[in-house]
Amino acid sequence: MPRSIVKPIKVLLADAQFLSRYGLCCLLADVGEVDLIGEATSEEELIACLQKELPDVLVLDYNQPEHFTLETVMAVRRDFPECRILVISSDSDRSRIYQAIEQEINSFLTKECGEEEIIDAIYATARGEKFFCNNIINHILERSFGKEDDCTPTPLTPREVEIVRLIASGLVAKQIAAELKLSTHTVYTHRKNIMRKLRIGTASELVRYAFNQGLVTP
User: What would the pLDDT profile of 70-119 be if each residue is shown by its tens digit?
Assistant: First the structure.
């Protein structure tokens, strides 16, 4: 995924867990185009930081009772509607995950995600794009297609999600191949697999799916 950006990305971390903050700080320190402007360990500290300076990306774990909750996301959305939110959380409760997504957060990763995916998500969020890791995509798909708990999820890989985004953005296979440095044949193969997994038959259905799931913004 392209990472080019005009100016350094201002990032604010909101996480009550020291190890999580420390790990993210170390990761971001090695990224030249990212500027960590603050850390918050409670909702009160977070609101104070946002009042002082609005970041390009707020990295938040809402699943930390007595520190950050879904109400924190709602408060940020209400008082700082222009703030772009990247959730990085270990929350596995589907109901809370759906509620967080419904608050129009920009991106959502789990704490199992690796370095590259985290950095990609920060850049995508800073550009105003949506970015969901594979685990979150699974939850979205299960809800969208009404799967029962005992059914096997139909996951899209991160590469397939990126191809869906590019198709929905209006790029043809040749352009996608150039963008991702793949062969046109590989792009067609990915597209075929994506449509099989999602059980859809036309490009227009695929575009509608991408917009419905928030993978691209109208």
Answer: 999 999 999 999 999 999 998 888 888 888 888 889 999 999 888 888 99
| Dist CA 138 CA 116 (whole Å) | 20
Q: Considering the entire predicted model, what is its pTM?
A: 0.64
Distance CA 72, CA 12 (A): 15
- How far apart CA 32 and CA 97 sit, in angstroms, is 31
Residue type, 63: N
Beta strands in the chain (DSSP E): 9-14, 34-40, 57-60, 85-89, 107-110, 131-132
Q: What is the per-residue pLDDT across 156-210, written as a single tens digit (0 to 9) for each?
A: 778 888 898 898 888 888 999 998 888 888 888 888 888 888 888 887 888 888 8
Q: Do the Cβ atoms of 133 and 158 come closer than 8 Å?
A: yes
Do the beta carbons of residue 150 and residue 139 sit within 8 Å? no
Cite the DSSP H helix spans in 15-133. Answer: 18-29, 43-52, 70-79, 94-102, 115-126
Contact 165/124 with Cβ under 8 angstroms?
no
Give me the percent of the chain exceeding a pLDDT of 90.
42
Which token pair is 123? 């850049």
Nearest to 158 by CA among 184, 138, 178: 138
